[in-house]
Design a protein that fits this description.
Layout: H1 19-31, H2 33-47, E1 54-58, H3 64-73, E2 77-82, H4 85-94, E3 99-102, E4 115-121, H5 130-140, E5 142-158, H6 161-176, H7 187-190, E6 196-209, H8 210-221, H9 228-233, H10 236-250, E7 258-270
Parallel strand pairs: 1-2, 1-4, 2-3, 4-5
Antiparallel strand pairs: 5-7, 6-7
Helix pairs in contact: 1-8, 2-3, 8-10
Length: about 270
């Protein structure tokens, strides 16, 4: 089973898998570790005394979140699925005790079945139809009673003009490619008419140091020079200036306070 091309995980707008992109993902994992650990702990509480036999990390990248899942939940097996061959190899190198497989998260059959814990963070924002993805996972890889754990952005707000403009541009670009930066606002609706029953849904307003967030955004901005939408719609002079400002914020040469990140966290159970 394959979701139609317009829902493919092989999207036109990605952060890539270069050395810089990999470093960015490690920083991302560090910045969001605390609330992700808490979310996994909540999932564990819903499982009660039941131990997890197989946990799947969709879009695992270099494996940092997969590592966290394994450490917090202690499943018998933990598998990360990732479309990038480079990231799969890197994940295997960093975490030799875990299993990583190159596989499109929207293509069934999957290389594992009957998973009782499915996790994704900052993945559905890059998929054209979160509803179709969640329905596919429920129908193909999830065991009856499995838990689905989601963390996605609802909004990103900053009082600094450079960061505010960056979030505006990212939103425009993602919408052009059929994606949604603030997909967290849509997650409850995305699970409607699927086998998933929501057990917990919460919007958490997270305050992240602007310097750390800018360290994620500046490398991404540097990839836009090869992006057709950015080339056609954004002023290259503005992009260059924005990159300089974000770099200065990341390095602490400009103080920009905090970024207010509203995040939707959901735990759902397959009926």
């Amino acid at each position: 089973m394959r979701i139609s091309r317009r829902y493919s995980a092989d999207v036109s707008y990605t952060f890539g898998d270069s050395d810089e992109a990999s470093l960015r993902l490690r920083r991302l994992a560090e910045i969001y570790e605390a609330e992700t650990r808490e979310l996994l702990g909540r999932a564990h509480s819903f499982a009660g005394s039941q131990s997890f036999s197989l946990a799947i990390d969709f879009g695992c990248g270099p494996g940092w979140t997969t590592r966290l899942i394994a450490d917090v939940l202690r499943p018998a097996r933990t598998i990360g699925l990732e479309s990038s061959e480079r990231y799969v190899m890197e994940a295997r190198s960093h975490h030799p005790d875990l299993r990583f497989l190159q596989h499109d998260v929207l293509v069934a059959p999957f290389p594992a079945q009957n998973a009782d814990l499915l996790f994704c963070r900052f993945l559905l924002t890059h998929l054209a139809s979160p509803h179709e993805a969640c329905k596919l996972w429920a129908q193909t890889i999830a065991a009856p009673g499995a838990l689905l754990v989601l963390h996605e952005t609802e909004s990103m707000q900053s009082g600094h003009p450079a960061l505010a403009r960056y979030y505006e541009m990212v939103g425009q670009m993602q919408r052009h490619f059929g994606q949604e930066l603030n997909v967290g606002t849509m997650l409850e609706a995305a699970l409607a008419d699927t086998p998933w029953q929501i057990l917990h849904s919460e919007c958490r307003v997270l305050e992240k140091p602007a310097c750390r967030m800018a360290s994620l955004h500046a490398p991404n901005l540097r990839t836009w020079g090869k992006n057709s939408f950015a080339i056609q719609n954004f002023d290259p002079v503005e992009l260059a200036s924005l990159e300089q400002e974000l770099t200065a914020i990341a390095e602490g040469r400009i103080e920009a306070g905090v970024v207010h990140n509203a995040a939707r966290q959901i735990v759902a159970r397959r009926s």
